[in-house]
UniProtKB/TrEMBL annotation, chain A:
It comes from Microbispora corallina. Residues 107-316 form the ABC transmembrane type-1 domain. Coiled coil: none annotated. Belongs to the binding-protein-dependent transport system permease family. Its main location: membrane. This is ABC transporter permease. The keyword Ion transport does not apply.
From TrEMBL, chain B:
This is ABC transporter permease. Belongs to the binding-protein-dependent transport system permease family. Its main location: membrane. Residues 124-326 form the ABC transmembrane type-1 domain. Keywords: Cell membrane, Membrane, Transmembrane, Transmembrane helix, Transport. Coiled coil: none annotated. It holds the Pfam family BPD_transp_1. It is found in: Cell membrane. It is a multi-pass membrane protein.
Length: 326, 339
């Protein structure tokens, strides 16, 4: 187990290193010059040179990358802006703040969105999938299948504003979506984020319904299920105590990936409801060509995916004792 | 699970043959896998209806100029601004339901006052052409690299495998919007205006670069299991060249997963392209684009929800139809799969 973890973590670090190097090179190899943007409209060549020097941009690319890498662990000093303490992912020229700080500020929003949406996706998706599998071929199953086809084809940027119009503007059932800190007002946190959760989970839920259903149907045809039935176990017990365990394994894999996508910024949902999360930060950075910020967000997103993949692999072993890791 | 199509078509051929009562009825005819697939597909009513709808969308895209001529409007004129009495001082259509009327079938765009129907019709062109180009490109790249990786193995496989792993570890939604400005900045100087064609090309490019890895990984796995099968070994033993093995032995068995993956991918690309437009990094004005219609719609829905509903419902119909069509094609190619 320890050996497995060490190997996987090393592998993950290598992947992150590659991603950061590729991204760094791509971003800084382009002619759009952050120093020029920072210098303003009337920019004397000597001022530009000074700024570039202060930003460390007059050095070769790999030296810059090295500084960036060291900065994550040791922090950096920008002559222009002052110190950037230990996990320093660079300094955003457009918003004039350290990248890491900006991401940390936005993180609770994205995390809240992720947690709530995951809860909806897992409970609702798996439940309807199980029900459909329980009643295979019956009307309930057909309704579940049909609605999952439609659900999977919906787009957040369509359903989001539409539901906001009917539920918030017209009916006034829910408050306008925004972020209320959980620590300050748990109920407000819930009601203000409920609509984004539902909208974000619609497209995912359909997927989980489908998957759970087909997995359950497949599991119910397995030998161990037949054995359990032959030994006199009731269908219900077999279904809810045995079969679902086997069915959950691929679901966990997919959920790991989806969770990472959500954490990496549920960009469209955040943009739809003007929630100031990491995804919205990325969109704004794109509009400003704020490369340090983009680099930071990308790395954080990639790290989320890589870490969650490891967690998923460990979870396999917990759920399915046959899986050996090592 | 997908199985090599040769095995499945044999099974179906057997089933079809045994279904015919011996002696009576028409003589048993030999049919190619393609013919069998077509016969199965024709019997699937959902599939045929969806195919008609999808074809309809493609026809609208191709015939957009003809529709524009018959309808008498174009997607660029700002009718609402040019003619008084259509938009109120706040820029919203005066007529109810977003300004729908006999003249402007689907109403007017708030603000600029362009014709919604024409925006929609020409927008299909943008969305569909990008989705088709990206699907074709990423499928070709994925097929070539996947088969190469699986068939050659060794170091090549290792390198391609790691590239695929890395690409799949990228937060793709994020990368889409992050790389668009990078691709463009690499070509256009900051002072210049980004030309429309460049945005079009870079959207295709970024979607393709991030899209090929899925199909490549799938095909690599398929080839890995196929290459140890007897028929491939037999071909090798009899001295077939690698090219022959790949094209005559492996590829016929891979058409099913390739086509299935492509049909799964296309509606995703339609959604992704519109998503880019919605986030403001997609096609730029004045090119009509569904994504930008969603962007405008999301800004004006408080006052004019009709404008949002047209692109939303059109896209829903297209994606549902295409997904159902994909399911039917899958069933027709590979009747053994359970859904």
């Amino acid at each position: 187990m320890t050996g497995f973890l060490v190997r996987r973590i090393l592998g993950a670090l290598v992947i992150l290193l590659i991603i950061s190097a590729v991204t760094f090179y791509l971003f800084y190899a382009i002619p759009r010059d952050p120093a020029r943007a920072f210098c303003g409209k009337i920019c004397r060549p000597e001022t530009l040179t000074l700024i570039r020097h202060n930003l460390g941009m007059d050095e070769p690319l790999f030296v810059q990358y090295w500084h960036w890498l060291v900065g994550i662990f040791a922090g950096r000093d920008f002559v222009q802006f002052g110190a950037c303490p230990a996990p320093c992912l660079g300094y955003s020229f457009a918003t004039q703040e350290p990248v890491f700080g900006a991401i940390v500020d936005r993180f609770p929003v994205t995390l809240s969105l992720t947690i709530g949406a995951s809860a909806v996706i897992l409970s609702f998706g798996i439940l309807t999938g199980m029900l459909a599998a329980w009643k295979v071929g019956q009307p309930l199953d057909k309704i579940a299948s049909a609605s999952s086809v439609v659900g999977a084809s919906l787009q957040i940027y369509f359903v989001g504003p539409l539901l906001a119009f009917y539920l918030v503007d017209t009916a006034g059932l829910l408050p306008r979506p925004s972020y209320v800190a959980f620590t300050e007002d748990p109920l407000g946190w819930f009601t203000h984020l409920l609509l984004p959760w539902v909208v974000l989970s619609i497209i995912f839920t359909a997927n989980y319904t489908r998957m759970t259903r087909s997995q359950m149907v497949e599991q119910l045809a397995e030998d161990y299920v037949r054995t359990a039935r032959a030994k006199g176990m009731s269908s219900r017990s077999v279904f809810f105590r045995f079969a679902w365990r086997g069915a959950m394994i691929p679901i966990i894999t997919i959920f790991g990936v989806d969770l990472a996508t959500l954490l990496g910024g549920a960009i469209i949902t955040e943009q739809t409801f003007s929630l100031h999360g990491i995804g919205e930060l990325a969109v704004r950075a794109v509009q400003n060509t704020d490369l340090p910020m983009l680099l930071g967000v990308t790395i954080v997103g990639a790290a989320a995916i890589v870490v969650l993949n490891i967690v998923v692999d460990v979870l396999y072993a917990v759920i399915d004792p046959r899986v050996r890791i090592g | 699970m997908t199985f090599p199509s040769s095995a499945t078509t044999d099974a179906v051929a057997d089933a079809a043959a045994s279904a015919e009562p011996a002696g009576s009825g028409p003589a048993i005819v030999g049919r190619s896998p393609g013919q069998l697939m077509w016969r199965r597909f024709r019997r699937d009513r959902t599939g045929v209806v969806s195919a008609v709808i999808v074809l309809g969308f493609f026809l609208v895209a191709i015939l957009a100029p003809v529709i524009s001529m018959l309808y008498g409007k174009d997607p660029y004129s700002t009718y609402g601004q040019d003619r008084p009495g259509l938009l109120n001082p706040y820029g919203y259509p005066i007529a109810p339901n977003g300004g729908m009327s006999g003249e402007f079938w689907f109403g007017l765009e708030p603000g600029l006052g362009r014709d919604v129907f024409m925006q929609l019709v020409y927008g299909i062109r943008t969305s569909l052409s990008i989705a088709v180009i990206v699907t074709v490109l990423s499928t070709i790249i994925g097929v070539v690299l996947g088969i190469t990786s699986g068939y050659i193995g060794g170091k090549t496989d290792y390198v391609i495998g790691r590239v695929i792993d890395t690409l799949l570890a990228f937060p793709s939604q994020l990368f889409l919007i992050v790389f668009l400005p990078v691709v463009e900045a690499a070509i256009v100087l900051p002072e210049e205006e980004t030309p429309t064609w460049l945005r079009y090309v870079s959207i295709c490019l970024v979607l393709t670069v991030l899209g090929w890895a899925t199909i490549a990984r799938l095909l690599r796995a398929q080839v890995l299991s196929l290459r140890t099968r007897e028929f491939v070994e037999a071909a090798r033993v009899t001295g077939a060249s690698p090219g022959r093995v790949v094209f005559k032995e492996l590829l016929p068995n891979l058409w099913t997963p390739i086509i299935i993956q492509a049909t799964l991918a296309l509606p995703l690309y339609v959604g992704a392209e519109a998503g880019l437009g919605f986030l403001g990094v997609g096609m730029t004005e004045p090119t009509p684009d569904w994504g930008r219609m969603f962007q405008v719609g999301a800004n004006v829905y408080h006052s004019d929800v009709t404008y949002l509903i047209f692109p939303g419902v059109s896209m829903l119909i297209f994606v549902v139809a295409f997904n159902l069509l994909g399911d039917s094609i899958r069933d027709a190619f590979d009747p053994k799969t359970k859904r």
